[in-house]
Write a structure and sequence with these properties.
5-stranded antiparallel sheet, 2 domains, Beta-Lactamase, 290 residues, 5 helices, 11 strands
Length: 290
């Protein structure tokens, strides 16, 4: 073999080795970049989730503060007179999340309800509602999950006892809120324009907030649209069973009414929000292969 051929072969070998090394290094770099992106995504997800949890709980505490202040004002008035109605009007007008406010007597009969558009439910018995039963058992404030209300729509009720100046139980004050509005106004601004989404559910599997209107109020354990997606139901039961955690599942990447939707893998973190011992789960989701 002459010298020129030897040089050519040597150059070919060097090029092949170099290409192999470069390909290997590129693969390593891609993996490292992907790992970095994955880590950054997880850090962003947990940060957004913690911030949302803090803000939602703070909003619930503000509602509680309004409730307690109103109870103090009502402790020196009749629960069905003009003064009581003024208190109810004030608590509603000072917080856009409150649909209505009502006083009830010792037997949970509604005495006064404001705004006046809900006055038709005055006189109704709400003693069978879970939050009222809890209030009488503990004589402390309570909050319901989403329930059918005498107002004619599903909502959440926060209720607190009213005591007179001698500490005698007089009745109760309740406010109705839509949890989807409370949660939505907090979680939507920071995630708009990001690859993340958030939803929230009761521990019985019912959505209390979802960015897809088609899924709002559905039950992840029992609704027929989820029965063919066992990963969704398995993940949901994990969420219901623990106050916080991480998991994966597969489901649609867009709203149910979007014709372009496709099933993708998703990773999610969740935590707990709530007040008075009522727990809701707040979940942040990231599509792994959108």
């Amino acid at each position: 073999m002459d010298k020129s051929k030897t040089i050519v072969y040597a150059l070919i070998i060097v090029m092949v080795v170099s290409l192999g090394v470069n390909a290997y290094q590129l693969n390593v770099n891609l993996k490292l970049a992907q790992q970095k992106d994955d880590l950054e995504a997880k850090q962003t997800m947990t940060s957004l989730l913690i911030q949302a949890q803090s803000s939602i709980n703070a909003e619930l505490e503000r509602l509680d503060s309004s409730l307690q202040t109103a109870c103090q004002r009502l402790s020196t008035t009749e629960l069905s007179g003009a003064q009581a109605r003024t208190v109810l009007e004030d608590i509603v007008s000072n917080n856009s999340l409150i649909v209505n406010a009502a006083t009830s007597d010792l037997n949970d009969i509604l005495l006064a309800v404001e705004p006046s558009e809900y006055s038709h439910i005055e006189g109704q018995d709400i003693s069978g509602q879970a939050q009222n039963i809890q209030l009488h058992q503990t004589m402390r404030p309570a909050m319901s999950n989403i329930i059918p209300l005498v107002e004619g729509f599903p909502g959440v009720v926060m209720v607190a006892p009213i005591f007179d100046n001698n500490g005698k139980f007089m009745g109760s004050l309740s406010i109705v809120i839509h949890p989807s509005l409370l949660i939505g106004k907090i979680v939507e601004p920071p995630i708009n324009g990001t690859p993340y989404s958030m939803w929230a559910m009761q521990t019985n599997g019912t959505f209390i907030y979802d960015p897809d209107p088609q899924q709002q109020g559905r039950n992840l354990f029992t609704d027929s649209i989820y029965t063919n997606y066992t990963e969704v139901q398995t993940f949901t039961r994990q969420v219901a069973g623990a106050q916080s955690g991480y998991g994966t599942y597969q489901y649609y990447n867009t709203n149910l009414d979007d014709a372009s939707k496709q099933v993708v893998s998703k990773e999610a973190y969740w935590t707990t929000i709530g007040i008075y011992g009522t727990e809701w789960r707040l979940v942040i989701v990231h599509a792994v292969n959108p």
